[in-house]
Design brief:
Blueprint (H helix, E strand, L loop, with lengths): L4 H10 L9 H10 L7 H23 L5 H5 L6 E3 L3 E2 L2 E7 L5 H14 L13 E5 L6 H12 L7 E4 L8 H9 L6 E5 L1 H4 L8 H18 L2 E7 L13 H5 L2 E6 L6 E8 L7 E4 L9
Parallel strand pairs: 3-7, 3-8, 4-5, 4-6, 6-7
Antiparallel strand pairs: 1-2, 8-9, 9-10
Helix pairs in contact: 7-9
């Protein structure tokens, strides 16, 4: 005859005498009769360890993605914002000594990207540009008016300028600017020095922090971060600051200027591409008012 476990439990409660109680031995005996199998206290711990170990192994397997030849050849090809000069994504710099015209050049570059017109004969793929003018708004109005006179058109509507304080190494600042920036845009920071106040450009540690912040910003906007920067006392040594800056950049545009000679821009670095492009230019004066 097969006993219903519930019937046994009901009988146990019915026959329960509070004055005698039920011993732990009685409970174990009844449980075993109803199919319960005792386990060692350590078994639950071991089972938990096994699960944790398995989870850790799964995470370890998923952390790195190993690519074979076919996967490597299927990776997206390099895409250009300015053909053979600037990629659509990454961290780049346009740099030169004071008075070389790098900010004027950056503004002209920005408008060409906004319009999708050629820049020094190189095709630009149209996208919005955000210009962080951290050295103040005092002169940019005249520059914009001069550009409009020289080009005989108004500044494109997808060009925006920001003159508020901004610190590239503060997450709150980079997150705020990224949230307001259209994905795939070009973000120009003029200048790197003003965006990293209090940091030592010659320190490997501080420069590492600066570069990490610039990379996070690039990933957040899914576009190109272009840093306007200075050369050091010795212009032949390129970018001012720690050498890690040069190594981390995806592209560089060097601007040079000598008195009584034309100004020159040169593609100083472009990963996996010919970086020997150079162009001469000059700054033209335009009357914008009296």
């Amino acid at each position: 005859m097969t006993w219903d476990p519930q019937v046994k439990i009901d009988k146990l409660f019915k026959d329960f005498d509070p004055s005698h109680g039920i011993t732990i031995g009685t409970l174990i005996h009844l449980a075993e009769k109803n199919g319960w199998q005792p386990t060692l206290p350590s078994e639950s711990i071991i089972a938990s360890d096994v699960r944790d170990h398995a989870d850790n192994e799964l995470l370890a397997e998923q952390r790195y993605k190993f690519l074979d030849r076919d996967a490597l050849l299927a990776l997206p090809k390099l895409r250009w914002r300015v053909k053979h000069i600037l990629p659509t994504r990454g961290v780049a710099a346009i740099y030169g000594p004071s008075g070389s015209g790098k900010s004027f050049l950056a503004l002209d570059l920005a408008t060409s990207i906004c319009l999708g017109t050629d820049w020094f004969g190189k095709k630009c793929k149209r996208t919005p540009v955000v210009y962080l003018g951290l050295e103040g708004a005092a002169g940019i109005q005249n520059r914009i008016r001069a550009w409009e006179v020289g080009r005989d058109q108004q500044l494109p509507t997808n060009f925006s300028a920001v003159f508020d304080e901004f610190d590239l190494t503060k997450d709150a600042d980079t997150q705020a600017i990224a949230q307001q920036t259209v994905k795939g845009s070009v973000l120009i920071i003029d200048t790197l020095n003003r965006a990293t106040s209090g940091r030592d450009e010659n320190s490997s540690s501080d420069m590492g922090t600066i570069l990490a912040s610039a990379k996070r910003l690039e990933q957040a906007i899914e576009g190109l971060v272009l840093l306007v920067h200075h050369t050091g006392k010795d212009q032949s040594k390129g970018l001012r600051g720690h050498s890690s800056l040069h190594g981390a950049l995806d592209a560089e545009i060097a601007v040079t200027y000598e008195k009584r000679k034309s100004r020159t821009l040169r593609v100083g670095k472009l990963k996996d591409e010919d970086d020997k492009h150079s162009f001469g230019f000059r700054l033209e004066k335009h009357i914008v008012g009296t």
